[in-house]
Design brief:
The complex is a heterodimer. Chain A is of the alpha/beta class. In chain A, 32% of the residues lie in helices and 24% in strands. The chains are: A alpha/beta, B mainly alpha.
Chain lengths: 250, 247
């Protein structure tokens, strides 16, 4: 129901300084199968967030199309978006933040309850975002995105700036919630280990204009991925490609 | 909080004591002691004159306040969200901000007669520009990140306004309301003095012609006390309530 077909013929940022207009995408093509977990991995600033914003319908200033298989119009597709910052409304409680996107839903309350429990925020339903830790805020953002029962889930470096153990726990939470509520996922990251650990498919992006430098399927079952030699091989291979492709910026 | 109230009460009591002593020394009709002023206030309350005129004036304050806030909010939001609207009306705004209150009052009375509508409208028009400026500031400061959340999760117009836009504008609206109240009640007195036959401002003009300083002070004090009670009893609790999430 939600196979995804993205084609961006042209996306150009008008000149912000003397460097002139910057063409971010030129004839870029990406498809994702229904239910696939696709990681987009590439140097920071290469246009990954722009890509997600285009898919989410936030950025309309581009030439091309974003199509969902079997959907009449992209308006029918429910999108969940976990932004790089949690972007919880600070003046609404955690439960209100998670429930707002589905306010018209009659069984909203129980759904919010379930989700908060699943992401480990069961006791914090009535807290305000200001009272949450960074990790808790990201959990709430995750719950909000899943609350809409998305056909497509977009995650933009959702675990960035967390310490390793917290990020790891959040990854496990994400996979647990996702396995209960399977949906097509585009997951942007600049952390190669994370990409290979989570994804069915890792796309290595190179910059200006954005192109798919490598498209690697990860077939190892998720439970066996830690300490798997095949995973290590994938990481080494992608890392080499990244260096050779000059995709590394800093 | 409690100690602040006690401190300001104490300082007010000191002022009253100084006033009483000074009045005793000067011993003139032109500076009545506070005891006399409070006695006059009580007497006017018993006859019903003071409550009557006070109520009339407060009604005018309320009407002008609601009008100015509603119109100022609409214009401010439009100017803050649309660069075009802002460009077109910014010049007007500067003009109205700099029009003396008295000029607006006189013109409204000349154009629309010495009527209740003209009086209330003149006060509102005095206040609208400052509401516009404050609300426009708030509308410009709306965080595009939250608006993006509303769009992705399809909040729609009503939910976006109620949960995303309004909470961000609230501090600005509260600021406009507080400064609004303090400006409006002063202009209402002018309007009443120039063109109404009731209200505190009218009474003040009457006692001015009689050189009755005691009554002038009695009405003034009563009015100031009521306005301060509104500020303490309504505006400040309201402000605390809407900023609860910040704690």
């Amino acid at each position: 129901m939600s196979g995804l077909d993205i084609h961006i013929r042209d996306k150009t940022y008008r000149a912000v300084d003397r460097s002139g207009p910057a063409r971010i995408f030129q004839d870029f093509h990406l498809t994702a199968a229904h239910g696939a977990f696709v990681c987009l991995f590439g140097p920071s600033g290469c246009g990954k967030t722009t890509l997600l914003n285009i898919v989410a319908g936030l950025d309309l200033d581009y030439q091309g199309s974003v199509r969902f298989a079997n959907a009449v119009a992209s308006g029918d597709v429910r999108v969940g978006y976990v932004f790089q910052q949690p972007r919880l409304l600070p003046w609404r409680t955690v439960a209100e933040n998670v429930g707002l996107p589905v306010q018209d839903d009659p069984d909203r309350l129980s759904r919010v309850d379930d989700l908060l429990t699943e992401v480990g925020l069961g006791g914090l339903a009535n807290a305000y975002p200001r009272q949450l830790s960074a990790g808790q805020a990201r959990r709430a953002a995750l719950a909000r995105a899943f609350a809409v029962e998305p056909d497509l889930m977009l995650l933009d470096e959702p675990f960035v700036s967390l310490d390793d153990p917290s990020a790891d726990r959040l990854r496990q939470t994400l996979m647990a919630v996702w396995s209960q509520r399977p949906t097509t996922v585009l997951f942007v990251t600049h952390d190669l280990d994370e990409a290979v650990l989570l994804a069915d498919r890792v796309l290595l992006l190179s910059a200006s204009p954005v192109a798919i430098a490598a498209d690697t399927a990860i077939d190892v079952p998720r439970a066996d991925r830690r300490d798997s030699p095949e995973i290590a091989r994938h990481i080494a291979e992608l890392d080499g490609l990244r260096r050779n492709g000059g995709a590394e910026t800093s | 909080m409690g100690s602040r109230i006690i401190a300001s009460l104490l300082s007010l009591i000191v002022l009253v004591v100084i006033w009483e002593l000074l009045a005793g020394v000067i011993d003139s009709r032109l500076l009545p002691p506070p005891t006399m002023v409070f006695a006059a206030m009580a007497a006017e309350s018993r006859t019903g004159a003071l409550p009557y005129h006070l109520a009339i004036t407060l009604l005018r304050v309320a009407a002008a306040f609601v009008l100015a806030m509603a119109i100022g909010f609409g214009i401010g939001l439009a100017m803050g969200r649309s660069a075009l609207v802002d460009k077109v009306f910014d010049g007007w705004l500067v003009l109205f901000l700099n029009l003396p209150a008295l000029v607006i009052v006189i013109l409204f009375y000349v154009w629309f007669g010495l009527t209740e509508v003209a009086a209330v409208a003149a006060v509102a028009v005095n206040k609208i520009p400052t509401v516009v400026v404050t609300v426009r500031e708030g509308a410009r400061a709306l965080d595009p990140d939250y608006l993006a959340v509303a769009r992705v999760f399809r909040f729609g117009r009503m939910r976006t306004f109620r949960h995303v836009i309004a909470p961000q504008l609230t501090p600005y609206v509260v600021a406009a309301a507080r400064s609004g109240l303090s400006l409006i009640w002063k202009i209402v007195l002018v309007v009443e003095l120039l063109g109404r036959s009731d209200g505190v401002g009218f009474q003040l003009s009457l006692f001015f012609q009689l050189f009755d300083v005691t009554m002038i002070l009695a009405y003034t004090l009563a009015f100031v006390i009521v306005i301060q009670l509104l500020e303490l009893g309504i505006m400040q609790p309201l402000e605390r309530r809407v900023s609860r999430w910040r704690q």
